[in-house]
Design goal:
Layout (H helix, E strand, L loop, with lengths): L18 E8 L3 H12 L4 E4 L8 H4 L20 H6 L9 H14 L6 E2 L4 E7 L4 E6 L5 E8 L21 E4 L14 E5 L3 H13 L2 E6 L5 E3 L7 H19 L19 H14 L2 H6 L9 H18 L3 H7 L12 E3 L2 H4 L5 E5 L5 E4 L3 E4 L3 E3 L2 E4 L8 H6 L2 E2 L6 H4 L18 E3 L12 H22 L3 E4 L1 H17 L28 H13 L5 E4 L5 E4 L8 H13 L8 H14 L9 E9 L2 E9 L8 E5 L13 H11 L2 E5 L11 H15 L1 H4 L6 E6 L1 H15 L5 E7 L10 H5 L8 H11 L23 E8 L3 H13 L4 E10 L13 H30 L1
Parallel strand pairs: 1-2, 1-6, 2-3, 4-17, 6-18, 7-16, 8-9, 8-16, 9-12, 10-11, 24-25, 24-26, 26-27, 27-28, 28-29
Antiparallel strand pairs: 4-5, 5-6, 13-14, 14-15, 19-20, 20-21, 22-23, 23-25
Bound molecules: NADP nicotinamide-adenine-dinucleotide phosphate (NAP).
The site of NADP nicotinamide-adenine-dinucleotide phosphate has 26 residues, from α5.
Amino acid sequence: MSDGVVETRASEVSGGETQTVDVAVVGAGFAGLYLLHRLRKAGFSTVALDTANDVGGTWYWNRYPGARCDIQTVDYSYTFDPELEKAWQWSEKYATQPEILRYLGFVADRYDLRRDIRFGTRVLGASWDDAKERWLLTTDKGPAVSCRHYIMATGCLSQPKPPEIDGVHDFKGEIYFTSRWPHDGVDLRGKRVAVIGTGSSGIQSIPIIAEQAAQLTVFQRTPNFALPAHNGPLPADRAAQLAEDRNGLREQARWSMAGVPIPPATDFSWALSEAERRERFEKLWASGDLVGMLTQLWADQGVDPDGNALLADLIREKIHEIVKDPETAAALTPHDHPFGAKRPCLDTNYYQTFNRPNVTLVNLRQEPITSITADGIKTDRRSFDIDVIVFATGFDAMTGAIRAVHPITGRGGKSLEDVWANGPQTYLGLTVADFPNLFLITGPGSPSVLSNMAVSIEQHVDWVVDRLVALREAGFTTIEATETAQAGWARHMADCATVTLHRLANTWYTGANVPGKPQTLMPYTGGVGPYRGICNEIVSRGMLGFKLSGPNGASQCNDGEIVRLQPDVRLVLNMLAEMNLPPIESMGAAGAREFVAQFNATRPPGRPVGEVKDGTLQGADGPLPYRLYRPATPGPHPIVVYFHGGGWVLGDEQSDDPFCRDMCRRSNMIFVSVGYRHAPEHRFPAAAEDGYAATRWVAEHAAELGGRDGPVLVAGWSAGGNIAAVTCQLARDRGGPLVGGQLLVCPVTDCSFDRPSYTDNAAGYFLTRGLMYWFWDIYCSPADRTDPRASPLRGKLQGLPPAYIVTCEFDPLRDEGVAYAEALAANGVPVGQLKAHGHFHSSFTMVDVVITGVGGRMQMAEALQAFTQSAEEGESQEINAAAS
Ligand code: NAP
């Protein structure tokens, strides 16, 4: 058997009558084959349909020279059968397309799958029959198919994108698409070849085409990041790991972020020296590991533009080292997107190829193609005589194969085309509301292309087949996502996307490569392991978000949203739950302080600022420590007096260090974090009075501290928010100092515990109702609690400085924060509010752990800047008024 040729023994079905099965599958690639195997084992009658003439899916079609896997192939394999794993050995770290195709053929033969596959058959239409509760598929060959369940295993990158260049049909030479490469190969010897496109397909094929062609001209629109594959035998350490604990590694991959068993980096770029960063980079560059380079250098490379730029610069340096002609090197160097925001490539001699005398790079950003002519390609500057054009122009990804295959009509005649007119809507990327019994394997909304597809496919197939079995056992015949669940998933997808840098790139992940396609980030960015956990949780919570129905009116609908928390908040809370910590209030004040100190020691270090300086200021009853954070920019700067959180019992001037650093950087202001006195040693009103005294002291010493003229600002989190709010009231009533604005983050404002947020979020979100009771009891006797210095909501609210109040959805203190904002506004105080959805009490102070808090902190910094600006404007108005 030659490479790429796999024995065909397809199922024979005659035309005419309808073929009736339990489940129909479209696609006989990685997903379709495993589906057939699992469905058959579960006792479902099944047929798979594929336009190809054999198994293989993407590996059947993409036979271009140089086509290879770019995830280590031992990871890009089925893991469902240990015997299969023993029976197949990969010959290289990154297997070639023919070898992968042989593997899929081997799998098809081993499990005798071909007998249920109708090759060379295109599905022309699929419509749901509500009365029969079946899908009817029409096909271009053989009988129609009637099935209870319809599963699209059509792949994410199987619908080639048209080249969108004028004159293609005028070309007299040969035209090939990498995605539809002829099975017998193409003889390029002695020919003038053009390759259009420099994504993974172009980058893999260009070095080999350059070796064959007389002349190769590469037409590049956007340079891409490529890393050397350093292909060869499987590295010895990986082989040893697999030999030692194959199952452990497989399990690790299933619960990882990308579906590959390597732990992501935990060090932040700013905690590493330049030499350390370079050393890590060189090691990965030499190892040839794409997922490694995407995840293992430093923790902020994929979420923070600055951390990413450090890595991108190192790759750019490499390109300039390899490519001899500086102009070509510059043209090949990507500058328009962060590394990883667009799919990076793994190459073999890609950049070196541009040192060959027979290779020319045409930078389409400088000279766009105007047309293809009979003899070649014209740009707006010159003409190229060409014999062969290779389009490596990519795919209408993720939705293309589903939408283009045929019209799909669901319940009530609803067309999928219409439902997806503004972008794909799914629940989990697996199902679509109003399309009962339809499943998409690795569909839009699932980790899919941002993961090791083999791992994601197995997870999807297992989940779907297990659901079908459970459905059958429970006597139900239909399963369908609810609108609520689907809308909730869209919101969760959007929340996840804010953490990543994908928004900063034009890519096929978002549909930007296809003119007119609605743009939305299609793959799920929350990670393979978290996604798997969510799918499992849906089952354990009684098929949350699904309607099930059966004969005689049997039905079940457990409506709701599976994830309402921000993705990283969910991870943090799950991690805390797994730690099974005793309640903080059971530790006593000393024990709780010890716990907080230990907890803080494990968090990522704060980012660098211009200067961090400790000092002592005068509190209400003696000296207090403070820590000052100064921006790196030239001063003087506005000053913010900051009060840390901790329920008036815990914490100190250093305990909100990462938050102070972050806010100092973002606002470009000095933060003075005050070590006010704590209960039980110093009960109410010690903390409040210290807050006021410290603010007065800072205002009086502003110039010495490097502060700008003008009012100081106050800010605080939690109990610190309470102290900041109280300080503003005391400053108004006691003749100063002048406070220009108050930033209150999840503040305590009142001693009433009957607002809904106290009940809704009483437990499970770290700050519990029980803990708040404990804090209040330690700080303040019941008789004192209504004093405005403890409950500022009960004080006089007129004439206070402008406020910005942040509340979090899953926080017992949410409603009293909102109440304070509303009460201030009602009393004529300018108030801005941020009601942070999906966040918990600690979200904004867990800098670099809760990345989704970045947007909120940006808004807080803007609010602080606006306070200063309006104070300055107010001052200049006063001066003008005095002058006139
Ligand atoms: P791609 O990444 O979308 O790249 C298409 C290339 O064609 C881009 O450089 C694009 O430029 C260019 N292009 C598209 N239309 C053009 C036009 N009208 N004029 C000029 N240039 C045009 O497609 P791909 O290379 O086929 O790869 C798609 C995905 O398949 C990969 O990202 C990867 O996930 C997968 N893949 C994987 C492997 C593997 O190693 N396992 C191999 C191949 C593909 P712009 O960037 O400016 O749009």
